[in-house]
Hints:
Mean pLDDT: 95
Bound molecules: 5-O-phosphono-beta-D-ribofuranosylamine
Largest sheet: 7 strands, mixed
Strand content: 15-25%
Distance between the termini: 11 Å
Shape: globular
Structural class: alpha/beta
Strand order of the largest sheet: 3-2-1-4-5-6-7
Amino acid sequence: MKNIAIFSSGSGSNAEAMMTHFAEHPKGRVALVLSNNADAYVLKRAERFGVPTITFSAQNLRETPQEIIRLLQQHNIDLVVLAGFMLLVPAPLVAAYAGKIVNIHPALLPKYGGKGMYGCHVHEAVVAAGERQSGITIHYVNERYDEGAILCQATVALAPGETAHTLAEKIHRLEHRYFPVAIEQLCDE
Ligand code: GRF
C-alpha cells in the first residue's frame, strides 16, 4: 500500500479524481494534500475525503524545503503527485523523492511546456498555432519545468472552431481518466 501526497495550487479537480480512484484501493491511498495557496479549493475537496492538508508559502518551499521533506517523511509518503502545482520543485525535494515525483501537463510535451505555459495559456497557444490535436503528458519531475522523462501521453483532436475554453474541458476529462490509472501503475513499483 503506497502513500500518495498531492501538491496542488488551485481547484484540484485532478486531486479529486485521484482521491476518488484511491478511496478504497488496495495499492495506494491519498495520505496528504499540500498547497501553497491557503484559499485553494483543493483543500475543501481534501477535507470532504477526510484527507489531511498542509499549506506552505512559496518562500517556505524555496528556502526551507527540508521542512516539507520532513512532513512528507512523517506521513510516510512514497509517491508525490503534482496536479496543478504552480511552483518549481526545489532540488532537495527532487533528490529526496528521486523518480517518485510525477506531474501532469495539459499538452503534448515537449511542445507547449516550460515557464508561463500553464492553465489557459497552454490551450490558447495550441489553438492559436492551429494544431489539429493536443493532449496530456504525465511525466517525472526534475528541477526544471516540464522536462522530466515522459511516462505516458494521451491525445485529443481539436474540432473545427475549438476554443481554449472547450479544449480545456476536453483535456480535463482526459486527465481525470488517465492520471489516476498512471499513478496506480507506479504503486506496483
Ligand atoms: C491541469 O490541467 C493540469 O494539467 C495542470 O493544471 C491543471 C490543474 O487543474 N498542471 P485542476 O486543479 O486539477 O482542476
